[in-house]
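Session log. Operator J.P. requested a structure for one protein chain; no other inputs attached. Running the standard single-chain path with token output.
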Amino acid sequence: MFDKIGQFIIDAADLLGGYPLFFLLIGGGLYLFLSSGAVSLRCLPAALAELKRKPTAENARNGQISSVQALASVVAATIGLGNIAGVAIALVIGGPGAIFWMWVSALVGMATKYHEGVLAIMYKGKDDAGRPQGGPMHIITQGLGPKWTPLAKFFAIAGLFGTMCIMNANQLTEAFMATFTTPEGIANNGFISTLGGYLGLENVRVYRLLFGCAIAAIVAVVILGGIKRIARVATIMVPFMVGLYFLMVLYIIITNISGVPAVFKSIFYEAFNLRAGFGALAGIALIGARRAALVNDAGIGTASIMHGASRNNEPVREGLIAMLGPSIDSGLVCTLTAVAILLCGNIDVEGVKGLEVAMQAFSNAIPAGDILLMCIAICFAMSSMFSYSFYGTTCANYLFGTRRGKYYAWAFLASLVVFAVVPIEAAVGACDLFYALMAIPTMIAVLLLSPKVRKATKDYFSKNEKK
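Structure written below.
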């Protein structure tokens, strides 16, 4: 029965996460990029300048966190195992060319996230406790009108499941087992064998179950403290983990500098390689876009939830900060991962493998590199879990009210245990399926409201040019 459910999820993800998701996210993002006058390129200096702006006393009363904390929390969510395992999976399935399409997705994703950030402040809502809230639910109901409420609820329902960090829990467990245990060690562990006999489970599943419980316990310490604690942890964790990861990849590049030109040549060549026909080319593009959707969340709607909690009351300023997210995760971090794997790893493996491929590459390049990468992977995975719990709680608050919605945190923690046990194919399929379902209402709202974003952008920059 469970195998049939898993196969159904994989088939549904392949259906929705194929051409429909590609045209919705890449096609829709390209339209937003062009119609906004290439905002992700034209306004990049202004976006960087916004990071230095100090919040005013007036803004402090208009939200729960600062714009920079919102960006850090969003990046904490998007810079997760998708940036390591997701890139490795893209390379294994689609080859080096898939990375080029991840770059394309990052460029158009910046334009999409700009629109999401603007709309998150323009149509900021409140929960039934009076706290400022953002997200596609409020953008849809306030921007498009009450008659669109079913679409808002559709997003919130999909968001309950799509924000459960399915692949993070699964891949973190897989990596920990590969790094610190052996099949013989698990088989000969008396405690695990006894517990397995009591539960009627094989030893490997018991081990994964126990590790999932440990993950849930650590995450609970942060997420039960609410959005402010999540934001404080994110602003400390994100710069540290990105900086350390950058130094590790920089070491790999320097020590293998002669191979770098060949790596980038393979990325561009394989992105447009027609040896296997246009069908293969389209498949590579789909793989890159699909993995990028899991990495940068542009068009998925989760970023607008976090940015809607910002104290910023100027929509365009929030949009400028929001659009920096994809440049960091899909642009910088994913490129670092791809270069490291292509320089020192092996992508010609059987089946769908992710973090295991990346860890082998780092182990080949750096003494104890797999251990160091495992530590970073833990930080990446945990940071994602912290922010995603807030996304899911916001969806639950919208659907059930804050009194009942607060119990979602416990459901989120339970899901970490469940998804630590399921096979990777089902975990990847579930992620793709729910992301596709979240993208549909989000992109419909963003595309329909894009004229309002363009007007707000024009008015903002015209006003600032006169100063």
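Operator note: Residues 424-466 form the longest helix (43 residues).
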